[in-house]
Design brief:
28% of the residues lie in helices and 16% in strands. Helix 3 packs antiparallel against helix 6 and helix 6 crosses helix 9. It has 3 domains: 186 residues, no CATH class; 190 residues, no CATH class; 68 residues, no CATH class. With 479 residues, it is of the alpha+beta class.
Length: 479
């Protein structure tokens, strides 16, 4: 059933902004603080994608704290057009029409990109969270608007997630959309689910302070050091297996947040991580003290396949999520995916644009460059286990016959490219953010246009598949 926004016409600020958008508008001083695109006069009339309108009334969006704003999401459904002029087209379906709390999000995607990503929480007028479905995705209140500025295909995150979806317990969903902020067209974005605690996401139950309830659920990320990081007791290893006493691994408590945990809970998580790492250095892989008791091996394999296929420069060492359920349910950590936009040949740092190396062996390059985030020692330990490697090879063979087949990967890319191009979405995006025939940090390939970027990505993937087939299966496949 369609949901309409009955008071959409009562939003004069939005209506005036939309009219200005259709005829073109000039950048005013108050708009400079919200990082508008280089070309602020791109007009959006109609699109096959949902349209997200954010209205902050010229106030500055911050990174450190949330700003109360209004958001309307026009979504008339797959295969149907959405219209920016809501006065002429008043009876469109509105997935959402109300209050949000918004801030900028991300690390390198924020610092290095003029097209900023956003964190959005749905709220009612009293500031209480609202869980609602957006663009056909499951209801929740916690969403990310991903900007994909340095990903000129606009699809690398979604491509990686869709390929991994059949194999992992939870992989975020995302939908392409077009964003308008205070009447200015900001381009193509991805409305993305997050690795959060919702019932349709990681389904995390709040831990308690004793007995089995103390043992879960927790979500931690291997990431940059923060003031509350749990520091691994074992340093990162070089490719030859030598420990580097200045290279440490940081586990950050994400769900529940550090400040919401008791000392008992914080200590439990630290001990659980230590227990897992201890098991990964035992002399036997298979006895009662072996690591399989504490890690979900198949989830690590599926994480590794997704990360290595796109040769993700951040793999293993940044934004790698680990979920710990209650012991009565499953005492093992399992892995989750996030942040793949620098994959598939889209980064010129640390050899990430190569197709003939492994990211799990990349610590030598990282150490030589003086980076502060490293691949945990235990990936070397896993890859020294014949049983793990055998399971990895078997899973790769299975994946290559299914979702990771060359045919399926190319078809998925073509389908996304068609959606983005058929009614001018990517064309408008690159009018707002001119990107062709110029270097954009940190991409290694200067594309002449969208078709050229898609051709480059397909060619890179084909070469990467050939390398992984040879290394893991002994022969190239062409499924």
């Amino acid at each position: 059933m369609k949901r309409f926004c009955p008071y959409l016409w009562l939003m004069p600020a939005i209506c005036v902004a939309l009219l200005l958008l259709l005829v073109g508008c000039r950048k005013s001083p108050k708009e400079k603080g919200n990082f508008p695109p280089k070309n602020t006069q791109v007009a959006l009339d109609s699109t096959n994608l949902p349209i997200v309108f954010l209205n902050v009334d010229g106030r500055r969006i911050m990174r450190s704290r949330r700003l109360k704003a209004r958001m309307t999401v026009i979504n008339n459904g797959e295969g149907k057009m959405s219209y920016a002029d809501t006065l002429t087209h008043p009876n469109q379906n509105a997935d959402y029409c109300g209050t949000v709390a918004i801030r900028y999000r991300g690390q390198s995607s924020y610092r290095m990109s003029p097209k900023k990503p956003y964190s959005i929480k749905l709220k009612n007028a009293r500031g209480k969270k609202i869980k609602q479905s957006l663009m056909g995705m499951n209801a929740d209140n916690d969403w990310a608007l991903m900007s994909a500025y340095s990903d000129l295909s606009l699809m690398r995150d979604l491509l990686a997630f869709e390929l991994a979806r059949p194999y992992m317990p939870f992989v975020p969903q995302g939908r392409f959309c077009e964003l308008v902020v205070d009447g200015i067209y900001y381009g193509v974005y991805i409305m993305m689910e997050r690795n959060s605690a919702g019932a349709h996401r990681l389904a995390i139950t709040s831990p308690e302070k004793r007995a089995d309830a103390l043992t879960g659920d927790y979500y931690v990320e291997i990431d940059r050091k923060d003031e509350h990081s749990i520091i691994s007791k074992r340093p990162a290893l070089s490719s030859s297996g030598e420990a580097n006493d200045s290279a440490w691994i940081y586990y950050n408590l994400k769900i529940p947040k550090y400040d919401d945990l008791s000392d008992e809970q914080r200590n439990y998580v630290a001990k659980a991580i230590e227990r897992m790492e201890d098991a990964l250095v035992t002399t036997s892989y298979d006895n009662a003290l072996g690591y399989r008791k504490w890690v979900n091996v198949l989830s690590l394999i599926d994480y590794q396949i997704a990360s290595e296929l796109c040769h993700n420069v951040d793999a293993y060492r940044l934004s790698m999520g680990l979920v710990k359920r209650r012991d009565s349910e499953d005492p093992r950590f399992f892995a989750t995916l996030w942040d793949m936009n620098l994959g598939y040949g889209n980064c010129n740092r640390f050899g990430a644009d190569r197709t003939d190396t492994w990211m799990w062996q990349n610590n030598d390059v990282l150490m030589a460059a003086g980076d502060e985030n490293y691949v945990p020692f235990w990936w070397h330990r896993l890859m020294a286990d014949p049983g793990y490697v055998s399971a990895l090879k078997a899973r790769w063979r299975q994946c290559r016959q299914e979702a990771y087949s060359t045919r399926n990967i190319h078809a998925l890319i073509d389908s996304m490219a068609t959606v983005l191009s058929a009614h001018g979405a990517q064309q408008r995006n690159f009018k707002a953010w001119p990107s062709w025939n110029r270097y954009i940090n940190p991409i290694p390939y200067i594309a002449s246009g969208y078709d050229d970027e898609i051709r480059y990505m397909k060619d890179w993937i084909d070469r990467r598949l050939a390398f992984m087939d040879k290394e893991l299966l002994g022969a190239a496949l062409d499924p």
